[in-house]
Each structure stands twice: as structure tokens, then as C-alpha cells.
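Standup notes
- DV: blocked on the single-chain target, sequence here:
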Amino acid sequence: MKLHKVGALAAVSILAFAACSSSSGSAAPSASQAAGGGTPAACANKMGTSTSEIHVYSSLPRQGTNTEQTNTLVEQIKTILDGQKIGNFTVKYFDLDDSSAANNGDWDGAVEQQNANKAAADPDAMVYIGTYNSGAAKLSIPILNQACLVMISPANTYPGLSKEVAGVTAPGEPGLYYPAGFRSYARPIATDDIQGAAGAEWAKTQGKTKAYVLDDTQVYGAGLAKSWALHANKIGLEVVSPNKTSEGFDAKATDYSALAQKVKASGADIIYIGSITGQNTGKLWKDLRAAMPDIMMMSGDGVFEKSWYDGAGTSANGTFLTFGGLGPDQLTGAGKTWFDEYKTAHNGNQPATYTAYGNAAATVALEALKKAGSNDRYEVLKAVMATKDLPTVLGNLTFDENGDAIGGSISGYKVETSWPPAFQLILTVKE
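- DV (later): unblocked, structure below
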């Protein structure tokens, strides 16, 4: 892979990423392929019972550190879908919370499973938009798959949910998430094998030679960090953390001074961290900075939140951040119009990074409902998975056979002395 720096105006060009990852021998076929042209067993008799309503659910963490993102996602989904007319039906939107106070406001696996089961049991549910966290998606995709209920995520980036990536994904992925034997999951955002590779390439262009890689041990954080380390090793950026890959940190630790000294002793000139904000990242950044005030630090979109910056304080300054898509301030065409209108409607505040992807996910859902023209889950599912050249605020969107968006770019930002971070460049990765 080679990293290419392109101007923001050129970011509308789309590059195919299929060659960056291996395809999975355990991957489930598309719904129509699995059925041999007929209806899969899991999708038989999945017609809604209401003669007037179609239901759409979202499941996102609605408390804790992610609300800056999820408040905007819900706003976009509701604006696009709630109250829409599909023939004789009116779309009714339900906003579900998959977080819990017991888990400090972060996503809770038990709650996510409850949400997925609730939607699956509602015969009038036709689309499930979520989750925000990849770890939550691992739990809900199988439940929804067996109920023939299509899932569209605006934010999941772990590759193993849809494809196999050697050295990153777990054995059996992604096939184990599709027990009904067909695909029922799609996402407009790029996967972390792409984001990780782009970040590693960016670090090398900064002259870095030795990297210490850390992760929060969750599905997203570990997957992103391993992807970064894997590509760093390939391009000659030496990974000096144990086994030349990512090392998990304890998110419940009260002090990271010993870890900081371990990193310092390694001779690393860059630290890469794969994590979500709620995994004690404020304390981690502070302790690492205290030991190594001048070291370069880089992370991904899991901490691309003001709540992360507020927690880390001045220790966050100087951090390089990647986002697995186009940042909202880099959108062009219809996306730029949407961005400007959003700022006008929100007192000059720009949308959070995933907001446009929530808009795109809802747009996919609405178009699929219109195309299906009925309250038949299977018809809606097929329409979502067959999305091709659909105009969205992200540009024209097409899903591949895995449900992944074809093409895309990675945005690079740097935190200067305040939030939000400053845009640096568009990173595109190709063979």
C-alpha cells in the first residue's frame, strides 16, 4: 500500500479498497445467493402486521462520553426517517439506548442484546440503525440476522464484522455473525484495516521510526491498533511493543506511570493508541505525556470527541487523529451544502465527525424502504444490501457483497491547543 496526500477538493474521488484485505472463506453469501433465488428460511413470513406503520429502530449509547456523537446521529435519523410516507405506511422511529449507568454510560452488551431482541420481536420493524460500537455489533448482528432484520451502522469500523483480515480478525469471522446463512449488515464508513494503514503511513511521513502501540482491549480499539501495527511493520516503521503488535492497557487502572516508563524505555518515538474515549483515556494521555512530553502521539476516531479532549486536557495537545472517512468539514457538493446548513441551524457549531454517516445510513434506509414499497423485511433487506450509486451527503454510495462501502478516504487531523482539531490532509490508501 502507498499513502497519497491529496487536497480536500480531490477527496471526492473514490478508490477501491478491496485489495487491501483478504476475503473470508467463512463469509455468508448475500440473502438472494443463500436462498438460491428464493426466500431464505429466516425471512419467510416476515411481513409487518400493521396496515399503517413501518418501524425503524436505532440503538446507540445515549449517555456517557459518546453523546456528542450520538445526539447528532439521532437528530439526523429522525429528521430523515420519522414521519416519512411509504405508500400507505408512515415511518415511526424509535431511539433506543444501548448504554447503562452501571457501565459508566458506555455501551452495555446486555442492554444491546435486549434492544436487538426488542426490534427483532416487533413484526413492523424493518430497519435497525446501529450500533455505535463494534463490540456491541458483534452481539446484535446474529440476533437480527436470524430475524431477517437488516442492520445499518453509521460508525462500526471493526473489519471482522464483514470480512476477514489476516492478523487482525478472529477465527470464524465474519461468518459466525450470520447464523441464518446470509448477509444482513451494511455500513457507509471505512473499516479499520484501512484507517490503521493510513495512520501508519502518515506516521512514517513524519519521520518516525519506532512505535509503541496500545489498545483498550475492546473489539474496536484492539482491531484498529493491530491494523496500525501490522501495516507499520510492513513499511519499515518498527513496532517495539511486545510481539511487534499492540499491547492492551487496563482501562480500570488508576495510574499508568509504570506503563509510561515501559514505553519510554523502549526507545519509541511515537505512541499509537486504539481506544474509545470512555476507557480511561484522559488519565492514560496525562501519564504518558508526563513521562514523555515531546513524544508524538496518534489515535483514531474512537477518541475523536470533545469529551476525550476535556478528559485529557493539555496532554491531548499535539495528538494526531485519524477519522475513518471524510470529516464533515471536508465534504463537497451536496455534503458541503448540508454542512453549511447544519452550522446555520446549530448556532455556528459544526457537526460531530460521524454525523454525516448517520445521515447517510438513514438515507440508505429510506431509499430501501421506498424501493421495497412494502413492510416485508426480506425486500427491505435486499434493497439495502443492493445499494448502488446512491446520492448521499458523502457522495454516491455503493455497498460490496460484504455490505462494506466501496471506496473512501481517511481524514487526518491534529489537535493544536484547543478543540476541535485542525484538518491536516486527506489520506487515501491503495495497492
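- Follow-up: Residues 304 and 316 are 11 Å apart (CA to CA).
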